[in-house]
Specification:
Radius of gyration: 35 Å
InterPro entries: CdaR-like_regulators (IPR051448), CdaR_GGDEF (IPR041522), PucR_C-HTH_dom (IPR025736), PucR_C-HTH_sf (IPR042070)
Largest sheet: 6 strands, mixed
Number of domains: 3
Family: Belongs to the CdaR family.
Oligomer: single chain
Protein name: PucR family transcriptional regulator
Organism: Pseudonocardia hydrocarbonoxydans
Pfam family, one: HTH_30
Shape: rod-shaped
């Protein structure tokens, strides 16, 4: 509230007449004190001039009603061109308000008729500048909230398109509008939605992703959370604590894919791994989808089935001895001596062949988990071989049941 000292109508009139000169003085001070201001296009500087003139007019109108709260401050921003609001950041707007307030403090008090009026004008300028700053913050907050809601809808559309494999130009354009490079290598991570304070958890996930140099797109699909991460330009820091943004349960990482258009392949594997993850309760968090191949194959994932059979391709190319040794070793329960007796070779020969299997497949038959993967791969290969020998097995089985 202003002090109960009336401002003469003649003083208010002088303020109104001085509006144009004050606005010009403000622009001159902005060009002198703000290095970025002279680089603005002429139409944007004209927009700042218009906002400043409106602010002076609102200030003069407010002085005639000193007992009321300021109601007209936001009007100065409502008349601003939309392009101006998009080009200027909140920090730049606050700098403009600060410069304008300093100019008002220099030029308005001398327009007062006496000392009492001068004190009223000084206090009014300070309060009006504060209210203008608050009004600017409110305008930018509303714009950010609207933009955030729109970005969330775009983000959901992009993630949904990736999951459904609809990588069209519209999806790529939406991702680019969100600041996600469509050509960057993409990793898809799938898990459960945070049960408690999901907005805070997802916000922290985004912040950690940005700190690690990654772009991120987040999609919440009911109880399922899907995150698209771009590879950082520098050395990859790994997922680290990004998985803390997920809810309880497994978190599965799909293989990196080259670009957003190919992200459906990574999403398909990540989601297949998420469905199969309960079959491996001791899996790390996060776990790569490729580390769940046996469980995925048991769930009917054709891609995992093919990956398992491809795992044995180097053994077929190397000759039958390695594959026979692996089969005998695993079928015999992993006993080295009995495997050597069954093959009529020395145990050291079995050790050498198993080392070769490990080198060619990347899986060590002597390690329990790798042995499980290799055993499942052998089963998948046998099923494929049997289907090639008798492709009518399934049809004949159905007829027998009938």
């Amino acid at each position: 509230m202003l002090p109960h000292v009336p401002v003469r109508r003649s003083t208010v009139r002088r303020l109104e007449l001085a509006a144009g000169g004050l606005a010009a003085s403000c622009l001159a001070a902005m060009e002198e004190r703000l290095p970025w201001f002279p680089r603005l296009p002429a139409d944007q500087r004209a927009g700042v001039l218009l906002v400043t003139q409106t602010g002076v007019g609102n200030f003069a109108a407010w002085l005639t009603r000193p007992g009321e709260n300021i109601r007209l401050t936001a009007e100065a921003f409502r008349i601003a061109p939309r392009d101006l609001a998009r080009r200027l950041s909140l920090r730049q707007t606050v700098e403009l308000v600060r410069v304008a307030t300093d100019v008002f403090e220099q030029h308005l008090p001398p327009l007062a008729a006496d000392d009492d009026e001068r004190r009223v004008l000084v206090e009014a300028v300070l309060r009006f500048g504060r209210e203008i700053a608050f009004a600017a913050a409110t305008v930018y907050a509303n714009a950010a909230e609207t933009r955030g809601a729109w970005d969330a809808r775009l983000e959901a559309l992009v993630v949904d398109a990736v999951v459904r494999g609809e990588a069209d130009d519209a999806m790529v354009s939406r991702a680019a509008a969100l600041g996600f490079d469509p050509a960057a290598t993409v990793t898809v991570v799938a898990g459960s939605t945070p049960a408690e304070a999901p907005e805070e958890a997802l916000g922290e996930l985004r912040r950690r992703a940005h700190r690690s140099g990654r772009s991120v797109l987040v999609g919440v699909q009911g109880r399922r959370l899907i995150v698209l991460l771009s590879e950082p330009s520098g050395p990859s820091p790994g997922l680290g604590r990004l998985v803390d943004g997920f809810g309880p349960g497994p978190v599965v990482v799909g293989p990196p894919v080259p670009g957003l258009r190919a992200a459906h392949a990574g999403a398909r594997e990540a989601l297949a791994g998420l469905r199969a993850a309960p079959g491996r309760p001791d899996a790390p968090r996060p776990v790569a989808a490729d580390d769940l191949l046996p469980e995925r194959a048991l769930c009917g994932d054709a891609a995992a089935h093919r990956a398992l059979t491809d795992l044995l391709a180097p053994l077929h190319a190397a000759g039958g001895a390695l594959l026979a040794t692996l089969t005998t070793y695993l079928d015999g329960g992993g006993a080295l001596e009995s495997c050597a007796r069954a093959l009529f070779v020395h145990p050291n020969t079995v050790r050498y062949r198993l080392r070769r299997v490990s080198e060619l497949t990347g899986r060590a038959p002597t390690e329990p988990r790798d042995a499980q993967v290799l055993r499942t791969a052998l089963v998948a290969a046998r099923l494929d071989a049997d289907e090639l020998r008798n492709p009518y097995n399934e049809r004949q089985g159905d007829e027998d049941v009938r």
